[in-house]
Amino acid sequence: MRAFFSLVFATLTVAIIVIAAVPFVVSTQWIRDQATEAVRESTGRELIIAGDTSFSVFPNISLLVSDATLSNPQGREGDFADMEELDLGLKLVPLLSGRVEVDRLIVTRPVITLEVDANGAPNWSFAPAGESSTPAQPSEGEAAQAPLSPAETLPAIESIQIGDMRLVDGTVTFTDRRNGSAHEFKQINATIGLSSLDNPLNLDGTGVWQGEEIGFSLDLLEPRALATGTPSTASLGIESAHLQAAFSGSVELKSGLVAEGDIEASSPSLKQLARWLGALAPQVDGLGTFSIAASMSAGTEEIALSSARLTLDEANAEGGFLVSLSGPRPLVQATLAVDRIDVNRYLAGGLGGGSSTSAAPQAPSSPQGGGVAAGGWDAEPINVDGLRALDADVRLSTAELLFHDLRAGQSALAVTLREGILTVDLSELQLYEGRAVGKLTVNGAGEMPAIAASFTVDNVAARQILNASAGLDWLDGRGQISGSLASRGLTQRRLVEALNGEMNVRFTDGAIRGFNVSQLMRNLNTGAVFDWSREEAQQTDFSELSADFTIAKGIAQTDNLLMLSPLVRLNGVGVANLPSRTVDFRINPKIVASLEGQGGAEDLSGIEIPFMITGSFDNPTITPDLAAVLRDPQKTIDTIEQIGRSLEELRDGGGGEGIKGAIQGLTGNRQPKEFLDLLVGGGGGNAQPGQGGAEPQAPPPISEDLFKQLLGQ
């Protein structure tokens, strides 16, 4: 705008000189010389008119100039502006009385080239002849002089009135040598209304940016104030397919454009808007509908938004922003209170969860509560380009936070993004009746993304968090979970294969839903040892269930799986192969003569029937390890007898009245050896020798669906 005014005012100055110096008859060469000198004196630049120049006086003054260029500051290559044609018409009679009334001013195909050099100096800073646009360094002992503002370098025009003022097929380019960015606004057609410098200026037009047409309007209440370096009330509107924006406030030309006022903007897709503006935007489901209303203070290097109210997708937020444009990337600093954050909408590539590219299991599982998708890990490359688009320091508070199927309540987090490295610090996270704290780092600075996470979850509702995170709905209680994990890889699959770390889980005062271990053992007296069907109404209470896992290259291993409960002890060891989605566990359930759960002894004698859990996550196989029982049958008999004696002591002491009867009910009131025969022979203990000579039948295979039932699948 300032450059345009400079050209217009310089041309008007030449016209006045022509009228004053040569009454009615002048040569075109003289006009060209006067125009060149006037521009040099007022701007410090060279005006070169390479084309034809025509001039007439009656009935009005008319000046037509073609193929004119305005140079860049000294030391810079190229031209600041050039125009194909300028058609100027002045009314003669008002000019003789000292007033400039422009009948027409039509600029055809102007090209204005805006550029910021590697040191941050713009080429649109004008200085009169003999002065450098870059402030000179003062000599020793000499006070530095303040550089002239852009307004101070504009030619002074006391009175001006413009009738038909148009810009036809113009182009404005902008290049920032500091970061290599380049933009072009072309096919600009605009009309300008200006009755005088003391009356409002109205501009309406259209142009094309990145292949999309933009409509724009500008109203300046005090054009003279803008020309002299003082603020002018202004309003600006922009309309396009990607952006609708309006500004109302004041503007002034100091060291560049400075604006203060209220701004409103909206876009049907923030993601598409960013790409249209030339910024990187990740390929995610979110970053859709966007709107903002705020008070704005903007300069050439910084934009501040206060009292901001914004919406993004379905989220609403309030707070403030500070955007710095002076570095190699925009720096966004913000403090926001958000009603709801759905992280799933902003996860790119494989970060969004497992895919279903692998073959589905043959037998469909029961409905799950959500969480991990079956069928393998996503092999699509993870896109972290968006992490390198800007830097950020953001403080967020939210009433609801969603990540995969996890749903958190009131949360506070700090997000830092520097040179492609994202750090999220969770200082408060209300999670399923408990709380969590943690830290997540995603490093997208290099060629291979890397992640690291540490977290502590305390006193959460076990069934809710396990159902949301892993689709497991069979465990009740209160949970404490902590861990630290790290990995790197180009895909979700590679991240899982390179996963290292540790995790500790402990649940208290809960129950395993769908199974009653005591009831299962009671079925022994009918020989139904392996009829372990899941019943929703049944459960096994426990006082503590815990395990510690170490994870190396995607293999999670534990050797201390433990459950403590009245009459029941359970321990186990095994591994979970996360990349192949398989398990290999040995579980040792044991019936003991103890009413103590948490705090009770772990090494009590008991009836123990180990079983193996092997196979895929989706369709595991469970088989009993009867060889462990038969390896030392006398030990099993002695164990049963020891349980009986322990129960007698419990009963005599008053702490276990009725418990012995319960255990006798489990064994069918059989003698220890008879019970063992039934256990391993499926009822063979009642067979009489010599009757049919039939071989004892092997126990029927345990249901392969048991583990799926345990997992609620």
Question: Top keywords for this entry?
Answer:
single chain, 17% helix, elongated, alpha+beta, disordered C terminus, three-stranded mixed sheet, 713 residues, 43% strand
Structure overview:
- It is a single chain.
- The protein has 713 residues and is α+β, with helices and mostly antiparallel strands.
- It has a domain at 1-129 and 151-177.
- The strands form two sheets. The chain has a 31-stranded mixed β-sheet that branches.
- The longest helix is centred in the first third of the chain and has 20 residues, at 2-21.
- The protein is elongated and about 130 Å long.
- The two termini are 68 Å apart.
Report the sheet with the most strands, covering strand number, pairing sense and barrel closure: 31 strands, mixed
Shape estimate = elongated
Distance between the termini: 68 Å
- How confident is the prediction overall: mean pLDDT? 75
* Number of H/I helices: 13
* CA-based gyration radius: 41 Å
The helix fraction, in percent, is 10-25%
Low-confidence stretches: 133-139, 142-157, 349-375, 524-530, 595-605, 655-663, 678-713
The helix/strand class is alpha+beta
Percent range for β-strand residues? 35-45%
State the total count of DSSP E strands.
Answer: 34
Would you summarize the structure shown here?
This protein is an alpha+beta fold and about 725 residues long. The chain has 13 helices and 34 strands.
What topology does this entry show?
Elements: H1 2-21, H2 28-43, E1 47-49, E2 53-56, E3 61-71, E4 79-90, H3 92-96, E5 100-108, E6 111-116, E7 160-176, E8 181-194, E9 201-209, E10 212-220, H4 223-227, E11 232-239, E12 244-254, E13 256-267, H5 270-276, E14 290-298, E15 302-312, E16 315-324, E17 331-338, E18 341-342, E19 391-398, E20 401-403, E21 406-408, E22 411-418, E23 421-431, E24 434-443, E25 450-461, H6 462-470, E26 475-488, H7 492-497, E27 500-513, H8 517-522, E28 539-552, E29 555-565, E30 568-577, E31 582-592, E32 606-608, E33 611-616, E34 620-624, H9 626-630, H10 633-652, H11 659-667, H12 672-681, H13 706-710
Parallel strand pairs: 5-7, 6-7, 17-19, 18-20
Antiparallel strand pairs: 1-3, 2-3, 3-4, 4-5, 4-6, 7-8, 8-9, 9-10, 10-11, 11-12, 12-13, 13-14, 14-15, 15-16, 16-17, 19-22, 20-21, 22-23, 23-24, 24-25, 25-26, 26-27, 27-28, 28-29, 29-30, 30-31, 31-32, 31-33, 33-34
